[in-house]
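> forwarded from #structure-qc
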């Protein structure tokens, strides 16, 4: 059975840079406060009207496809991970297929938030191994800035997130010293509400007290009502300490799981590329696994948390900087809303 390899990789980040000091224009915060808690110094925000989750994905995909030495017409399956789609439906996969004038190939949309890209990579890996597809485009793209609360009330979340896209082309390889060795996927919905965006949704406010009920709102108003907007109930919510507490446990667990499954230990890793959720989480994981600075790549300082896009953006940048070489043992890991977490171990 062949393995699947990353044959091409690309990224795109918007040109608009927003530093921590820029964020102070909208809310009561400081550069020191943000850096101390997250490590973030700046992030990129897409153009308000000229860029979408899909258009950014297209730019990243163009680079990945070119580097793979193929054309958009060679892609035979698309996997698109995002929590910020252009439309409530349809998904971004078909919009990308249309924009890139691809053949009538399958397009699968992944909704696993921060873990979305690694989940997508795992799905693509299985398709390649079975021989069903030969050139799979896996994309993670996010336009968070369109739906954040840029006020003092929303600062704990809004200072964290940024926009961008990353993409890879997965192909089969017969090289025993190259390719994805294994992927590991997990979830636990027990704490789903500690990191969530409830509205718009079909939950009928089941998880939120004090909102419109069936007694004082029509069905349509419960999906997205003026009262929800006036009450600022259409923004993401997060229990930061609770998320941090779970992340620092599950992150190292899923990395060790991947290493153990393939007979490796942390010291064998050439590069760990974690989801860029919080620099403090990444530093905790690094210390727990006994990894050196050269073994871990972080770029959250420049881009913030781009959720499903963060792993491919970081992986691409690390490769472009020469930090990944052929034959290197590379581990990808992510943790996020759901709660979901995942890892992938590969020989580059």
């Amino acid at each position: 059975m062949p393995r699947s390899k990353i044959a091409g990789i690309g990224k795109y980040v918007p040109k608009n840079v927003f530093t921590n000091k820029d964020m102070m224009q909208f809310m009561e915060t400081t550069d020191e406060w943000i850096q101390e808690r997250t490590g973030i110094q700046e992030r990129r925000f897409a153009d308000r009207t000229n860029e979408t989750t899909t258009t950014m994905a297209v730019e990243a995909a163009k680079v990945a496809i070119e580097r793979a030495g193929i054309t958009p017409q060679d892609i035979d399956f698309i996997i698109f991970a995002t929590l910020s789609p252009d439309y409530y439906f349809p998904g971004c996969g078909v919009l990308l297929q249309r924009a890139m004038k691809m053949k009538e190939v399958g397009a699968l949309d992944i909704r696993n938030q921060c873990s979305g890209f690694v989940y997508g990579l795992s799905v693509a890996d299985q398709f390649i191994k079975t021989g069903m597809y030969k050139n799979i485009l896996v994309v993670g793209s996010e336009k968070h800035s369109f739906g954040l609360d840029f006020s003092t009330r929303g600062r704990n979340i809004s200072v964290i997130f940024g926009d961008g896209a990353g993409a890879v082309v997965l192909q089969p390889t017969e090289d025993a010293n190259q390719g994805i060795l294994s992927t590991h996927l997990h979830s636990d919905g027990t704490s789903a509400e500690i990191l969530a965006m409830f509205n718009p949704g079909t939950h009928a406010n089941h998880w939120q007290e004090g909102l419109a009920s069936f007694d004082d709102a029509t069905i349509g108003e419960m999906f997205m009502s003026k009262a929800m907007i006036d009450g600022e109930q259409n923004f993401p919510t997060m229990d930061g300490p609770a998320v941090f507490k779970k992340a620092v446990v599950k992150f190292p667990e899923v990395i060790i799981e991947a290493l153990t499954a393939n007979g490796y230990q942390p010291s064998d890793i050439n590069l760990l590329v974690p989801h860029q959720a919080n620099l403090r989480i990444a530093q905790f994981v690094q210390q727990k696994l006994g990894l050196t600075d050269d073994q871990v790549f972080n770029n959250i300082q420049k881009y913030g948390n781009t959720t499903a896009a963060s792993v491919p953006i970081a992986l691409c940048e690390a490769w472009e900087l020469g930090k990944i070489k052929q034959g290197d043992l590379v581990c990808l890991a992510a943790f996020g809303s759901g709660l979901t977490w995942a890892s992938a171990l590969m020989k580059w």
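QC bot note: The mean pLDDT is 92. Residues 208-234 form one domain.
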